[in-house]
Amino acid sequence: MTSLIPPGCPTVLTEDDRTGTSVETLRRAFMDNLFFVQGRFPEVATKNDHYLALAYTVRDRLLLRWLNSAKTYRDQFSRTVCYLSAEFLLGPHLGNNLINLGLYDAVAEAMQQTGLDLNVLLDQEEEPGLGNGGLGRLAACYMDSLATLEIPAIGYGIRYEYGIFDQEIRDGWQVEITDKWLRYGNPWEIARPEITLPVKFGGSTYSYTDDQGRYRVVWQPHQMVQGIAYDTPILGYKVNTANLLRLWRAEAIESFDFQAFNTGDYYGAVNEKIASENITKVLYPNDEQLQGKELRLMQQYFLCSCALQDMIRLYLQCSSDLTRFHHKFTVQLNDTHPAISVAELMRLLVDEHLLPWDTAWDITRQTFAYTNHTLLPEALEKWPLPLFGSLLPRHLQIIYEINQRFLDQVRLAYPGDQERLARLSIIDESECRYVRMANLACVGSHAINGVAALHSELLKQTVLRDFYELTPEKFSNKTNGVTPRRWMVLSNPGLTRLISNHIGEDWIKHLDQLRRLEPLAEDAGFAAEWHAVKHKNKVRLAEYIQQRVGISVDPSSIFDILVKRIHEYKRQHLCVLNIITLYQRLKDHPNLDITPHTFIFGGKAAPGYYKAKLIIKLINSVAEVVNTDPTVADRLKVVFLPDYNVTCGQRVYPAADLSEQISTAGYEASGTGNMKFALNGALTIGTLDGANVEIREEVGAENFFLFGNTVEQLQEIWRNGYRPWEIANNNPMLKRVLDLISCGHFSHGDTELFRPIVEHLWQNDRYCLLADYQSYVDCQEQATRLYRDQKQWVKMSILNVARMGKFSSDRAIREYCEDIWRVQPVHVPLADTSYIAQ
Ligand code: 6GP
């Protein structure tokens, strides 16, 4: 009888098929998974079958490391970092895992032998877009570095059924499409239905004194849901450490429905189920903007309660003495989204584990540390008291108690200073009453940090000033970083190879080693290779642009790129003003000799943020006119790349010549795209904002295009009464540019369309575009002129990369470990795999 099993499939599975790394083994394991996991004959297998079979093959190798990590941590009761974040913007797993396993080339070869192209399979992965932008992506980079540095860590987050929306552009406008990322399955996660934790909402509380004379409070909820754990291994680079990312999904508790069901209210029961499961349905697409939605508060509490209950559960498996909880776990609050944890840990320790208040408070404060990610006042989370109290009645009581004790201390420190007391209070009593989450996070944490030097300073002077004055010792700065594994090795193989050929591979784990490139900046041969790599990356991006939006761009023009969320403070429209300025100049002098210039934009606008959406429309409208005007004759091109996400970032950063980091000074907390660009050899045009300041310090002022007012200058401008209309009236070119938009030149004669943008610039200009306009235009000109001197440009590009070592997320994580978390690496040995035989 002939076997049904196709040739190439192992008939007897050996341990090696799950863990082995030779090309032959990988190929056999892949065939086996295609047959036995995907249930497909090779002849009928789809691209997705191939992708999944490969993903499972890679996952087996991850699991070996993951189980060994878990066992090591458990045996040693290792101190563990818990990174609590409402967002983890991971990006696709497959390529990254191949890099970190050191299996990229072997798998590419194995696929080729099977007649498949690894790149096609990589493209098949739906990226898990469980974040909005910077904050979520930072969490992902930090998970990579924690594992690479062999630090025991758990990331706790929410398993949104729909991540950040997909963006389509129709008639120049953004249209949001639901992100059904789980549609074809997610091979990287393991559901843990046995790890299920109850989460309560609403209802009321009552108190009594128990038979030992203790005051007890009982919370009788109105609604109960359960959190189910979904685990994803996060592997470090060329180490055995694979940490845990545990995301929670909400589900109705069956027994809770029964009552309604038994009384005949079937639809009531079903509604309850739907309501419960809505909690983790969708990521809120607001980046840095508050929206006081009840469901959002439910999400936040759901995450915190699941995470903390899980930590306590893990702790109690090894010790019954909860008073040492903070020795086992240190918890980082990624902004205030998980700040309700402070009250939840108190509730769990006091109400459920019967610890005295003071002991519990000590543990709580020693457990938490808080990172602030924005100075925008509209992003400071506050919840209306009635909403908060009706959803979390017990937490409101706990917060009152925390606040009362805290304010007693403040009174001692500042007798009679009522205003300060009101500002420090966790409860905002001004108009309507609110719970202020940043205040809760500050009071409940032993450490508070900003994400770049300037931002940390401004925090101390502005939004957290009173807290800084009260407890200056809690404050520090931790400048952000990005992982060189995803943002160089995976996304820029050409540059990675070139660098490694000259200085070895150490830089991938020790980014400071890039310094060794400095002497090569003078080496003509090296410079030529450097230029060739960049050019190839640009050709590849040009092909992608052609295929995606049908615009042909010249790879030898300067690729000037601005990709990030669309927001007025990030000033995408300042870049547009410069484009129109160049356009105007060409119209005035058709034979003007300008550097051919390709402007590339990408980014999503929050669906409810009209101005941001209008900025997208403006970019596309200007693109339409500029790209087709015969006078321009291809010397200017404007491209808006739809659906900017991690995958798109991986294409874009390696192909950039000029990186646009043009936020109003004082508004961008750090930025991390700025780091990804510079690390990939782009030069930066930027303001003294966020981490730009430190990037410029590192790469040298002569290798950075600086423009614009500083924070202090802007403060001065506002103090003296900012009058943008005067600037516009005194600058003929600027005025012409604004008028050209207003007169409908870019909107088929419609003079109303862009009025909200232009009018705001004339009259108010909160983000000071007009104040920075001339300086920006001049700086752009300087940069594009310099671009013509390719020798000089390439040299500057090499020096930029050579001096970017500081901006590795490994450096950032080391600082967190030493200053805040006080945690040490734990080496994970790859124990024998005899568990297979057990
Ligand atoms: C962002 C900041 O805007 C960005 O500057 C920073 O690099 C990033 O966080 C990581 O620290 N903030 C957010 O995305 C946000 O939602 C509440 O802040």
TrEMBL record:
It comes from the Bacteria. GO terms for biological process: glycogen catabolic process. One of its GO terms (molecular function) is glycogen phosphorylase activity. The keyword Glycosyltransferase applies. Coiled coil: none annotated. Its cofactor is pyridoxal 5'-phosphate. Phosphorylase is an important allosteric enzyme in carbohydrate metabolism. Enzymes from different sources differ in their regulatory mechanisms and in their natural substrates. However, all known phosphorylases share catalytic and structural properties. Allosteric enzyme that catalyzes the rate-limiting step in glycogen catabolism, the phosphorolytic cleavage of glycogen to produce glucose-1-phosphate, and plays a central role in maintaining cellular and organismal glucose homeostasis. Belongs to the glycogen phosphorylase family. This is Alpha-1,4 glucan phosphorylase.
